[in-house]
Amino acid sequence: xxxxxxxxxxxxxxxxxxxxxxxIIPQPVSLQQNEGDFIIDNNTSLQYNPADKSLQDxxxxxxxxxxxxxxxxxxxxxxxxxxxxFRLSKTTEIGDEGYxxxxxxxSIIITANTRAGIIYGMQSVFQTLPxxxxxxxxxxxxxxVKDYPRFKWRGMHLDVCRHFxxxxxxxxxxxxxxxxxxNVFHWHLTDxxxxxxxxxxxxxxxxxxxxxxxxxxxxxxxxPQAVAGEPETYGGYYTQQQIKDIIQYAKERNVTIVPEIxxxxxxxxxxxxxxxxxxxxxxxxxxxxxNYKDVSSVLCVGNDSVFTFMENVLSEVINLFPSEYIHIGxxxxxxxxxxxxxxxxxxxxxxxxxxxEELQSYFIKRIEKFIVSKHRKMIGWDEILEGxxxxxxxxxxxxxxxxxxxxxxxxxxxxxxxxxxxYFDHYQANPASxxxxxGGFNTxxxxxxxxxxxxxxxxxxxxxxxxAQANLWTEYxxxxxxxxxxxxxxxxxxxxxxxTPLSEKxxxxxxxxxxxxxxxxxxxxxxxxxxxxRADIKxxxxxxxxxxxxFSEIYQSEIYYTTNGETPxxxxxxxxxxxxxxxxxxxxxxxxxxGEIMSKMPAQQSFVMDKAVGKNVxxxxxxxxxxxxxxxxxxxxGVRGTVxxxxxxxxxxxxxxxxxxxxxxxxxxxxxxxxxxxxxxxxIMMPQWVKFEISDDGKNFTEVQTIxxxxxxxxxxxxxxxxxxxxxxxxRYIRVTAKALDGLPxxxxxxxxxxxxFADEIVVN
Length: 765
Ligand code: TNX
Known about the structure:
- By secondary structure, the protein is α/β, with parallel strands linked by helices.
- An eight-stranded parallel barrel has the order 7-8-13-14-15-16-17-18, surrounded by five helices.
- The structure holds ligand TNX.
- Ligand TNX is lined by residues 331-332, 381, 398, 423, 425, 438, 473, 475.
């Protein structure tokens, strides 16, 4: 007892001196904070072996940062009372990118096996310092850190084609990556709506392909196509000199740039510049947005001069970029033009290929051979698996993880970039109060919880997962400020998911450390999303009873809720435990921080109690596996959908929804309804009509009513309850038929193609 008291007494001053808490993101493998600080001031020098050029570069990086935030000039290799030392060593436990950081009141020593590790040690130090120039004392808390990454590919992608971003902004983006120890910048340089890299041999790629009629003020999918003679004023590209400069900038920060040159699809800009590249060889104007009507976007695979062209392009790209990997795209290739092209068909016959997928595989394999001949590795989107994977290809898995899993099982390397949760063009907070995004919903917590190693690959295949990457497609992202907003803070969550060992990951700790970064973003005027202030409402069944659990992602927040339809206030019920649901009601919930309500609008979830709840449903046409809501009985689970696509909606692709419910026994009923969603941009439309039928035996059905749709087809978002009211009758079986549209309406980007039907609940009373 005495002993404890003694320790308490000596330990106490340590806590009361209010030493700055260390908040590093990503969380290091091991970190021990010690008493005291190292102060960087005019009595500080840098120490390193000047004969080592890489250390000299690293030292310059350190001193220019310090100069930037304080004005202090740090001299190198002269005697001062305190020093910051950089040492190259051979320490096996920290690998190629790891570092040891030792901060005491008289020295900061960073030890690593490579310059990369030294830079990461510096980044950890920088995170303890002010983010901008102030008069504050530069105080680095004493600590001992051992740190190294979990994955070697820690990537961020940026699409500069759909909208163009200046070289200066690209550098800012690289800086952001580097601050959180991300080491791959995937630069998406060519796409349908813009070619952004100067190719000396083919100047029209940029003089034509980099410019388009400016329709920036209109939403991507609604932009009109260009008309001949209109001025092409929107665009831009990077000269080879600018690219060299950016590569050097990235290298100083240990960021490798992986260039992507898209082929054979997503090539409309190249075709606008050189029409011979397409099957039809028809001239076309550069695209302004997402309208693909009569546009060729696929290279002709049956024309040998197309290969010569692409190989010449790749040669210049390979000469510029030192990256081990060259990304060739390979995604979303519409093979219709190949089917109608005599040259492509002749090639298919000559090579004895089964179908167009094998033609695509032929294309990719031939390009891989070329890239390998230049001593580089080819990487492509997961579609390159179709028709047979090229022998040495690395696969970037974006349509979920399945492509990555398949490739790893074939002993190919994989980078995980699944749309959920790693597409940062998707919403991160309540869409109702966010700037317009492409769709989806990937919150900070979802990104944080992401583990790049799927269960199916545990026990032998882990080594094929190089790491993970988030993608930022910019159809809806027109400005640098908006890029920052979509990337921050989600990139920080990803940084921890790809760097920190699972055992050291902790959401609450991350959320707390994040608050320091938020202050830094604020000081540096960097735009970021303040958080997902939408309470998450999760229905669950416990012992046969329905409950709603409420969650918040926000640091030190509280949740208030109502069940009477009113908007919750700080005086409403405070959430402490799952809320029992035993009648038809709408639950509304808001998030508060420090007594202030932060949600711009409440999250809400409706529940119904009716004769069909919990009853079995049989479908004539299958539910889409992508929109299963909470399982096969989602239409009778008592949980209603919201305008938020995907949540609690059952999706049917292009076919009628025909659902038969068995109530288990004869019941007296007088009303049946079904809720349907329209989400025009996502190809989800109201059915043409809904027919309600009843039966005693499940075989012979009698129609009680058919309700026609009255929601206009151009309405962007709507929820409609199709309701049949009739004089009370006895029945055991109910059949509901929602008739699909014959095709998406005229003027819709997918005109004539099958529409989706989304339904959430069938209510019987
Ligand atoms: C799919 S991801 C694409 C992109 C789009 C993106 C929008 C991938 C390989 N292809 O071309 O920009 O969806 O989220």
